[in-house]
Every structure is written in structure tokens, then in C-alpha cells.
Batch of 4 targets.
Target 1
Amino acid sequence: MLELASQGAKVLQVRSVELGMVHNMPVFVRSSFDKPEDIDPLGTPPGTLICSEEEIMESHVVTGIAFSKDEAQISVRQIQDKPGVAAAIFGPLAEANINVDMIVQTSRRTARPPTSPSRFPASDYVRARDTITGAKDRIGYARLDSATDVAKVSVIGSGMRSHAGVAAKAFAALAARNINIRAITTSEIKFSVLIDAAYTELAVRTLHTLYELDQV
């Protein structure tokens, strides 16, 4: 739930989930259209229980999908392959209090000089671009490309830890819909893809069907 909240799901605030996790307090999510006086305090009203993993009888491979259209991407092209370059890029961004959510860097084994694409909230796009441009001499890049018409789609589920091929199925499904993936990041229970914003709804619907979330 913390991953879902932080990746753009408009259900719970991130801080509320953090407090529940730190204090081991179950959080029950109900519809805001239900009047408190109409709920039976002794019954179990409809809703979603957010609790520790040990309390769940079964764990779904994929729990939910979140997306955010408020995104921007900046790619620093043909940077030097030497120690300290990453610090030269992200140091000024940190000093400007700009959060970088996705970082992808090409391998030094590629034929072309390394590239470092990064994703930012769209509200920080202009400041991020100006900050990197101002540090061009320190970074030593040849070209800076950017895009503001991108969206991030995240697939979250604790079951990913014990099931292989979860992300591969998503990549194949998106490819079948002719949806190009600009960048990918992964963690133990989540992976996110950056795509063109115009394909956001199609991508979310495709992944919902793929993981049978539309049948829950």
C-alpha cells in the first residue's frame, strides 16, 4: 500500500500509510460516501484492510496498478565514462531540492557513449533542466533531450518476490499493444515503466486485464 500511495494511487496519503506501518496499526479504508452513523460498529462494513503480511491468508502476485501523468523526462546524452559523473549530475539536483524518481544509465559496454535518462515530477521540469544545463561544464555531456508528455505506470504486489516472469508478461502485453517503454525501474515488490502519456489508459487497462485485477 505504501508503494501504491507513493506511485500515484489516489486512495491514501503516503504519511497515513507510513504511520500505520511504523506503529503496526491496521488501517481500514472505507468509502467516503458512507455516513459514519449508518455503519454498524459491530459488523464488518465494505472496505479494504491494510495490515501486516502475516495476517493475510493469501497473497496475490499483483495487488494493484498505479499511474501518474504529472511526469517529465530528461536524458543527458554522451556523457563521459569516468568516476564522479553521476555525482556531477545528481549533486546539483539534490542541492536544488529536486527529487529524481527514476534513473537509468547505459552500460559502458555499449558502442555509444553512456546516456543517463532521469524522471522528474513535471512541476520540477524547468528547474531540473536549468540546473543540469548550468552544470554542463562539470558533467561534460554532449546533448540534453527532454520530454513532458510521459506517464509512469507502476505494478505493485508482494507476490512478485516468489513468482518469476511477472514483469516479462507485462512487457510482452504492452508490446502487443504497440506501447513503447522509455524506461524501467524495479524493486522487490514493484516495477515501473515510463511511457508516452497518450497510451496511459490503454496501458493501465491492458495490465489490469493481464493480472486479472478487473475480475476482483
Note: The longest strand covers residues 64-77.
Target 2
Amino acid sequence: MNQYLLSIYEVEGEAEGSPSTPDEMQSFMARIMALEEEMDAAGAFAFGGALHGPDAATVVSGGTGLDKVTTDGPFVEAKEHIGGFYIINAETLDDALGWAGKVVEATNHAIEVWPFRATGRVGRPDHGSGG
């Protein structure tokens, strides 16, 4: 089983497709909950969440020790930003793209799909269980 990042993109200052009334928000949340339940039932859902706006981001950059610099705002100054994400389990890229299509339908936002590469921790047994 592979893992994929499904990034949900939003455009700053544009509310096209975003819920603007309490009824629209309720409908939006119902679609998200149904999607997440479907992902969970299929064994695809690993983790997901919404992010605060880009003004809440902080960037830490630089080298080691005292060379680090902390600045406000997102790393990339752009109109588009990641508004949320899912980490999913999928056998193939085509399966991940299928889930991405369902996220598009639920959120009305563009989705970017990225496969994960092994980091050395992927597939390691849980060492924190005391066993």
C-alpha cells in the first residue's frame, strides 16, 4: 500500500465555490463527512485536516544553530495556498487520483496529488507500545 498527499488548494481573496451561508456550510460539511467516512470504510483514510489562512503561517529557514531566521507568512508569496490536505492509502496512482476526484467534488477546489517516498520510518513496527 502506498501513501499519497492530496493537497487542497484555495485562491486568496476568491470565494468562488466556498460556502457563504449557514445552509451552504452545513451542506459542505455533510459532503466532507460523507467523503471521509467513505475513505475510512475503504481503508484509504490515514489523516486529513484544514489549515488556517496563509497569514497564520510561519517560516523557519537558515542553517544550524543561531543561523536560523523566523519570518511571518507562507514560504511562497502567491495568491494560491494550501487550504487543507489528506494523507491517503492507495494501491496505485490511479486509485489516488480517483480519491482526488471525489475530494474535488466535495470541496470544489483543485487537488494536487503527490506520492510519498520512503523515509526510513515507513513500514517500521511501532516501538512506542512497550513491547
Note: Helices lie at 22-41, 93-107.
Target 3
Amino acid sequence: MSSTSTRISAESVRNFNTRFRLLDTDRNIRLLYTLFIATLFAGFLFTIYWAHSVTGLSYAGVAQHYLGSDQTFCEPKSFRELAETTHFHFFTMPVVFLILCHVFYLTMASQILKLLMTLSAFLGVGLDLASPWLILYVSRHFAFAMLLGDLLMVGSFLVMAIVPLYEMWILKKRLMAQERPVE
């Protein structure tokens, strides 16, 4: 590969990360990102509702959900049930956060906030995927890990959703940059 093609490739990546922002997008792209974020928000609300109805969003409720309970006549989750849920979530959750992080990276948020939200989101995903297995096969105390993972995912989602929506619809500095730096 020649040094010219390497430089062009590096410049393209650098250009995306530093010069293109949500404020440079047209209304159609803003609408697309807004609808994506709104759909995710509805999904998170439904998930929180479901989790609350099943576990009460409590340590004891989470532990009972996976370990079973004589009080609620629930059986412990089977290996197969955990495998099916984990398999599905292993493919969907990272993709959702990849897209959301991508939209968030187009904002004017600081690089440190972008990094913190990315790490928080994916740490939350990791905890959410691992903790059912850890609750069932290691200790009920990993119910705290699941609650922490959920908190990290919801918290990072809210930041990564609110900042782009604010920049696209409230800040409104520019639509399609008129002046671009000459290189």
C-alpha cells in the first residue's frame, strides 16, 4: 500500500471523528437518528417495566427470578433458558450500543465523556449477560452485578440519547455546514 493511500485512509477516519458532527446533518438524518433513539427509549421503558414486574428491580427479586422460589412457585432457570436468552442478547445488545455510540460520537461532547459512556454501556452489557450465569452457578450475590449492569446501561443510554437530541433539535446552530475548512 502506498503512503498516499495510507494517508487518505487515515485522513478519512480522522475527518469523520473530528469534523463531521450532528450539526452538519440535514433534517432527514436528524429525523432518522431521532426515531432510532425514540424507538430505543420505548424499548428501554418496556424492559424496565418487564423487569420490575418480574423482579421488582430488587436484589431478592433478581435472585429469585434465576434461582427459583417456593414463595412464588418458580423453578430455577435451566441451562437451556439461560443459553437461549444469552444467545439472543449477545447479538442484539452490542449492536444497539454500537449504533447509539456512533450517534453519540457525532456530538460535540468531550472525548472523555464519549469514552466513559462507551465503557459504561459495554460494561453494563457485559454484567447483564454474565450475571444470570453467575447468580445460578456461583452465588446469588451476583444479583447486585445484574442491577449494576442495568443501571450502567440505562444511565449511559440516557446520556447518549439526550446529548444528540439536544444538539439536533435545541442547539440548532447549523444545518449542513456552509463553510468547510480548506485543506
Note: Confidence is low (pLDDT under 50) at residues 10-16, 179-183.
Target 4
Amino acid sequence: MTLPAGNVLIVEDDAETREMLAALLATQGFHAVGAEDGLEALHLLRTVRHRAQEVPCLVLLDLRMPRLSGGEFRRAQLGDPTVASVPVAVMSGATDAEQRAQALGAVATVTKPIDVDVLMDVVRRYCA
């Protein structure tokens, strides 16, 4: 059995959550890169895109963050042709998370607290 390969960009301002998600994805054979806000995520996404064909297969995006929120990140991402095509899954505890994710053109919504099975289904759908 070969392990799935895929780079996942985790955009989450809470360090513990970010590290937990990265560790979880690593146990499933994925390579996770973390960013603590939308600004860092945008920079990482653009840098990776220029350097490697292994562009992230999925961005896990928290909506509420300092500096550049999830929504602001998504608008900037969609405005940049080099990274616009990378699918985004919204991670949020907001009661209207589903509607907000749809408004941002996200491919999926993972509600917080995060259900590991739901999260892995989403990641596998785009990265396996």
C-alpha cells in the first residue's frame, strides 16, 4: 500500500490547533505546512507555487484570524491567477460557517470542534 502524497496548507491562528492538525495529517502520509494568518498563508502559497509543482492540493482555512482574515485571504487568493485554483476548505466554529464557506467559493466546510473523520474525508477527496 502506498501512502497518499499531498501538501496541505493549514491556515489557523491557534498554534495548538495548527500543530495538532499537522501531526494528524502527517500520520496519514500528508505533508502539512502551517501559517498563522492569511498574510503568511498567501506568502507561502505564492512562494511554493513558484518553486515547486507540488502546489498544495488543499488549503484548510480558518476564518477568524489577525492581520488577514480567512475571507480576505480568499479574495486575495482568487485575485492571483498563480494560486487561484488551489481548493480551499473552511474550518470554522461559526454558526453560519456553511454559508460563509459557500460565499467564499470553498469546496468544503469543516466545523469546529473538528471531527477528525470529516476532516480526513475532505483532505483525501482533494489530495489522494
Note: The first strand starts at residue 7 and ends at 11.
